[in-house]
Amino acid sequence: MSDIIRRHRVAASLGAALIISPFVISFAQSASNAVPTTQTPVAGITAPNGSFAPIVAADKPAVVTVTTVMKAQPESTDDGMPLGNSPFDEYFRQFFGDQGMPAPQTPPQQAPRAEALGSGFIVAADGTIVTNNHVVDGASSIKVTLDDGTELPAKLVGRDAKNDLAVLKIKSDKPLPTVKWGDSDRLMTGDQVLAIGNPFGIGTTVTAGIVSARGRDLHSGPFDDFIQIDAPINHGNSGGPLVDVSGNVVGINTAIYSPNGGSVGVGFAIPSDQAQKVVAKLMKDGSIQYGYLGVEIQPVTPDVASAIGLDHPGGALVSQVNEGSPAAKAGVETGDVIVSFAGQDVKDPKDLSRAVADVAPGVRETLDIWRKGKAMNVSVDVGRNGDDVKTASVPDESGAPSAEQGSRVPAIGLGLMDITPDVRQEMNLAANQHGALVASVNPDKPASASGIQPGDIIVAVNQAPVKTARQVTQAIAQAGKSGRKSVLLLVERDGSQIYVAVPFANG
């Protein structure tokens, strides 16, 4: 019990942290060890009419280099992360090292000036340029170098961190070349593409490849829908265009997946259909207002669907409703499954997050929900999502160690305790905190495999509130007798709530 309390205190003092798993790189099996097979030779990348030169000649003049002068970096915290840096910055360092981030040129105590390098492309003859937000984030001044070497100061028209896009503007005495937007929705895996940009600052460079995959989610934000490509992109390619064989922009090169900071053939681009809408809003207003519901959501897995009586998995399960939020005012409750929003089907939490974010604040929309075996709908006045507010977030889940004490629930492997006054005081729990404390988890039982941890507090079973360990035990037993394949537990952990479906199969 003392270990549980100590862990609780540590978790409370550390607060939230962004955790990015290290990349796992595997190598192909040697040809000498492979079983010989007869295969039809696959042709390499081939250009229309034998050459990409006409496409390059048309598009390259509209691709620019973006150089930013950054403010001097503040001193670092004890954990080595510079004060004022966002987790989004740290995310992109995983892909680009310091690309788009300041690199001190002199010792920190001399308050150095730092520069960062990226790419961009001209989309309007008046000098409107598109690039990545992380290329210009934190810049005190921005300079654009045209393909012919002309250097011009640039003004930041607007930027959107959630989509990692920014719009710049330059003035020129001569007509400026442009590129046209293409239709990324028509891209298919295997289609040929060209990436244009200024890698490592060596000058405008063109690389060729194919679309490797669509719809990649890098967990960088609510709008992740990246195009994966194998055309080599490197440091400095950020913000450059990805073009199709017609020479139209179908993506904005944004990130790479690499064990060493260089290209290994796994790059990512923001789809043009997504980018074009954002750019149009930034050109008009300079910023974007996103809709906000104010709910913590998680996927409806087959186990969760079974536990709550849904005939199939799908939708977004509400694990917590933020106090005073639009969702709370509309009557959304913990345990609701949101199956559609504004007439759009919600297949998973990502669908809901994107749909809500696309709605202008103040607009009234309808939520179709599943609540305790019944379908119903509620009207909600969508709120405004600031930079520090999540439209809808998914709580972290983690594994669980084991212990052996307390009132046992044999079916799933939990040891439970009531929240006594001493426990409440030691764990600094609120006076109105009710439920059952998880004192131990059998590592060989389903609760452990489902991620239940010692120190968790079970506050509801199958969407019914519980106040004591006995009530939890009885509710789990009743769920087993009813013939359901799993039981749904609402667990409170470190101030957040999450639903965990625990199957009976191995109980």
TrEMBL record:
Keyword presence, Protein transport: no
Protein name: Probable periplasmic serine endoprotease DegP-like
Gene Ontology terms for molecular function: serine-type endopeptidase activity
N-terminal signal peptide: 1-33
GO biological process, one term: proteolysis
Broad EC category: hydrolase
Cited PROSITE patterns: PDZ
Organism: Mesorhizobium sangaii
Family under the similarity heading: Belongs to the peptidase S1C family.
Claim: Protease is one of the keywords in the record: yes
Matching SUPFAM superfamilies: PDZ domain-like (SSF50156), Trypsin-like serine proteases (SSF50494)
